[in-house]
Design a protein that fits this description.
The protein is mostly beta strands and 154 residues long. The chain is built from no helices and 12 strands. It has one domain.
Length: 154
């Protein structure tokens, strides 16, 4: 899953100029995470990724949306499989998208939930950069900090 940060806006050529199209993009490549037991105490597993190569090249799927916060969005860092569906969290908007990926070159993301930051009453979305879903619960955001950099909540 890509996280293009400020480079997520899609540009198009209009009247000989490069201009924003209004779409925001992320990209996804399918692969298989392989864990192999080593039998070693200090490193019990070897980890590798086997990337899917359809049509003789790497299969890359484009994900497009128009949802943005401050002109930015589709900054996807978290990817999870839950109840046989694939979900991704947008770091900028706090939107959790369901990604219908079955055999698709282009994915139309479905906004599934919005995670608000802080006390859940402000306009900013949660930054779920290192989201986790143990037992189907939880998503970790950025630590809240006071002006003096003391962490007030993890």
């Amino acid at each position: 899953m890509s996280d293009l940060d400020a480079d997520s806006p899609v540009l198009k050529i209009r009247n000989g100029k490069l201009e924003p199209s209004g779409d925001l993009a992320a990209y996804l490549r399918e692969g298989i995470l392989v864990l192999t037991r080593t039998g070693l105490e200090n490193r019990p597993f070897n980890v590798s990724i086997q990337m899917d190569s359809k049509k003789g090249n790497f299969h890359i799927m484009e994900i497009l949306s128009k949802l943005a916060y401050g002109g930015r969005g589709m900054e996807m860092s978290t990817l999870a499989n839950y109840n046989d569906e694939v979900y991704a969290c947008d770091d900028k908007t706090g939107v959790v998208y369901q990604l219908p990926i079955a055999g698709s070159e282009r994915i139309v993301p479905i906004p599934w939930a919005i995670l608000a930051d802080g006390d859940f009453e402000g306009p900013k979305g949660l930054f779920p950069n290192f989201g986790v879903f143990p037992s189907a619960y939880g998503c970790g955001g950025v630590d809240w900090q006071e002006i003096i950099p003391d962490i007030i909540q993890d």
